[in-house]
Amino acid sequence: MGLGLSDPSDEALLAAYRSGESRAFEILLGRYRGPLFNFLLRSSRDRGRAEELYQDVWMKVIERCDDFRGDAKFSTWLYAIARNLAIDHRRKMKFRGHAPLDATQPRTGQSIGERLGNPGPSTEQLAIGGLIRARIGDAVEELPEEQREVFLLRQLQGLAFNEIAEVVGVPANTVKSRMRYALERLQGLLSDLEESDEL
Amino acid sequence: MNCDECKEQIFELIEQETIDPDGVRALLARCPDCHSLFDETKAALRTAAMLPLEEPPLSIDAAIVRAAAERVPTQRPSGWRRLQAAPWAMAAVALLALGIGVWTLPRGGELEGSDGFVGKREAHGELIARDELGDASSQEPVIAALEPAPARAIGGAEADAPATGLETASSRSARAKQRAGAPVAPAVARQVAGARKASPEAAAPRLAAQERKEDAIAACQRRVAEHEGAEQDEADATIDAEQALALGECYQKLGKKTKARRWLTRAAGEPVTKLRAEQALRGLDAE
């Protein structure tokens, strides 16, 4: 495997890592760290938990990289692991019934307790762009789970519909439908932004 | 195309994945409703693109990179990779070995067996070669991680669960390769496979089948005699799974059920021969 290639594929990088080139793993991590973390963040709706999941996903990749077969894309394999771990997390949270008080919030990175001691949002947070983005983030989190995961995989990672179908285990047409419903719902949730011409 | 079909494809048109872009565009040009939906969908996608993104903590990335660096590669060390740099030489060696094998292996010995028995010579190399060549018979589900998330105990062990149901020749050979230390280079596998087709070895399965019919009992008698003539403890300790299975099946053919059961049970304890040994044990029970 030539890491000297200008743009080695993910699969080639994983193969190189498996044969002992840890630099290849770093490149893979660099490619996916942002989208994967945001996928987990919006899936778990809890920054602290997202960080745990993020670490868990990569640990699974390290542990199980020998199981990866070259007839699939690395991205679909990675997100399938991430999705499974996120689903497990949600199952556990159902028993709790609510987020723990020490859980941090996706938008602020602060726990509820920390925010109680905070006199108010910073100037930066008050910026209109920031508020709009926060509204969008909230709206995405309000999407039904099935729609949200499809939306995030498409929006954050740019996976093709058939790749998303592999990750979530449904036909590609179902994925497209879910994406359409997600967009319709977002339109509804954010219609006031459009009406007030803030966008 | 009607409006309903058009509306279904508007999103795909924007995402450049529609199957009939011209049809959608034509209808958009003449239908105000459809065009309105098109504009709304585009606006929604623009809005969605503003989803705020956050960064994972660098400290976690650093910990992950450390963990990744500490993993011991299961593939062959670099010294072996240097050997792999001459695939033609490996293919030549493989050819030579196969050629010698044809003339030196006892007929009906290693290739001997009952239904489903894979001769020892065939077991790994052939499967690997077939796997690397994308043999149609090794079609299988894509990846273990795509299995639906199974229910599991809290503690997060789901991804460690064995990919049951995906156990195929290909996956088994992949694991065999891992155990051996490294995958066979595809080029080498192709050369070996190609060479096998052209060599007398290609006729080996046919010969073995014929010999099975003609001389199965005699071959088993030879095998058993060889085994029983050897120092038992030493011989028993060195017998691998395939040999144990073959021995068990021979004892079964010769009507020595106790010994057959002993060796088949041993073979059933090894993943590589488990299914075949269990099948043989069922046959033994039925006798």
Question: How do the strands and helices of this protein lay out in sequence?
Answer:
The complex is a heterodimer of chains A (199) and B (287).
Chain A: H1 10-18, H2 22-44, H3 47-64, H4 74-96, H5 112-116, H6 123-126, H7 128-142, H8 145-157, H9 161-168, H10 172-189, H11 191-195
Chain B: H1 3-14, H2 21-30, H3 32-48, H4 58-70, H5 78-84, H6 87-104, H7 125-132, H8 169-180, H9 186-198, H10 204-229, H11 232-238, H12 241-253, H13 257-268, H14 274-286
Top keywords for this entry?
A: 199 residues, Rna Polymerase Sigma Factor, Chain: A, 2 domains, 11 helices, B: 287 residues, mainly alpha, 3 domains, 63% helix
Briefly summarize what is shown.
Chain A has 199 residues and is mainly alpha-helical.
Can you walk through the features of this model?
The complex is a heterodimer of chains A (199) and B (287). Chain A is 71% helix and 0% strand. Chain A has 199 residues and is mainly α. Chain A folds into 2 domains: 9-97, Orthogonal Bundle (Rna Polymerase Sigma Factor, Chain: A), CATH 1.10.1740.10; 121-189, Winged helix-like DNA-binding domain superfamily/Winged helix DNA-binding domain (Arc Repressor Mutant, subunit A), CATH 1.10.10.10. Chain A has helices at 10-18, 22-44, 47-64, 74-96, 112-116, 123-126, 128-142, 145-157, 161-168, 172-189, 191-195. Chain B is mostly helical. Chain B has 3 domains: 3-48, no CATH class; 78-150 and 163-203, no CATH class; 230-286, no CATH class. Chain B is elongated. Chains A and B meet through helix 2, helix 3, helix 4, helix 7 and helix 8 of A and helix 1, helix 3, helix 4 and helix 8 of B.
Largest sheet of chain A: none
Indicate the mean pLDDT of chain B: 61
Measured distance between first and last alpha carbons of chain A: 47 Å
- Fraction of residues of chain A in helices? over 70%
The total of helices of chain B stands at 14
- CATH 4th-level superfamily of the largest domain in chain A: RNA polymerase sigma factor, region 2, helix turn helix motif
Mean pLDDT of chain A: 80
Largest sheet of chain B: none
CATH architecture of the largest domain in chain A: Orthogonal Bundle
In helices, the fraction of residues of chain B equals: 55-70%
List segments of chain A where confidence is low: pLDDT < 50 over at least 5 consecutive residues. Answer: 98-121
What's the shape of chain A?
globular
Q: Whole-Å distance between the termini of chain B? A: 67 Å
CATH class of the largest domain in chain A equals Mainly Alpha
Low-confidence stretches of chain B: 76-85, 106-209
Q: Name the quaternary structure.
A: heterodimer
Name the chain pair whose interface involves the most residues.
A-B, 70 and 55 residues
Portion in strands of chain B: under 5%
